[in-house]
Amino acid sequence: TRPHSEHPKDHAAKRLSSASNGTSDGGVGAKTPVEITALEESFRRFAIHGDTRATGKDMNGKNWSKLCKDCGVIDGKGITLTDVDIVFSKVKSKSARTITYSQFKEALAELARKRFKDKSSEDAAQEVYRMIEGKSPVISGVTVKAVASPTVSRLTDTTKFTGSHKERFDKTGRGKGKAGRVEVVDASGYVSGYKHAGSYEKKVSKPPQKPM
């Protein structure tokens, strides 16, 4: 089993290295390392993405689509996701679910002719190769949805507050600011808590009604 301290990327690199040397992890009698191109290196990186059992020698349709998306081969105009899927089905063996590296290059050549129509087939293929060489799968960030804690909800529910804490918020739960922390002296002359404060002045200021 893989030690917990081993980083996933390091493990992936070890798998690619083992595949290149023709040995498995911890194998004996390693063959002479075969130098691979930058394009093939990227092919292998994407081929093993998300699959711990993959060797990097062939690529499934999902990772093929991801490679075309992450490397900018899909532009939404000349090449769409549908084009990518069609080419994958065209180049793979009839009963296979994956494509080999040679089939991968064949698929790229098909897309290159659609993407770079003003270039020769060879030049177009080289343009697409350059878009992929040295690239690795893009790992999108995982957004974790915050889960409300019953304890936190209880502590932040202003309707449950008592004493001086209760006076700091109005009925809607909105803070009163300074008025909720400092005792404000009422100099209006009315008894504290009187609900009809100011109503007398309004009655006096009204013009007398004419008798019917």
What does this structure look like?
It is a single chain. Strands 1-2 form a two-stranded antiparallel sheet. The chain has a domain at 38-132: Recoverin, domain 1. Mean pLDDT is 76; it is low at 22-30. The protein is an all-alpha fold. Helix content is 42%, strand content 3%. The longest helix has 15 residues, at 101-115. The radius of gyration is 36 Å and the shape is elongated. The protein has 9 helices and 2 strands.
Which superfamily, in CATH terms, is the homologous superfamily of the domain at 38-132? EF-hand
CATH class assignment of the domain at 38-132:
Mainly Alpha
User: Given the structure, what is the number of helices?
Assistant: 9
Helix coverage percent of residues?
A: 40-55%
CATH topology (fold) name of the domain at 38-132: Recoverin, domain 1
Overall pLDDT metric: 76
Per CATH, the architecture of the domain at 38-132 is Orthogonal Bundle
> Quick one: how many beta strands?
2
Query: Helices and strands, in N-to-C order?
Result: HHEHHEHHHHH
What profile does the largest beta sheet have? 2 strands, antiparallel
pLDDT under 50 segments (min length 5)?
Answer: 22-30
**What is the topology, as strand order, of the major beta sheet?**
1-2
Q: What is the alpha-carbon Rg in Å?
A: 36 Å
- From the helix content, strand content and strand pairing, which structural class follows? mainly alpha
* % residues in beta strands: under 5%
Region (Disordered): 1-31
Main location: cytoplasm
Subcellular location: Cytoplasm
GO molecular function: tubulin binding
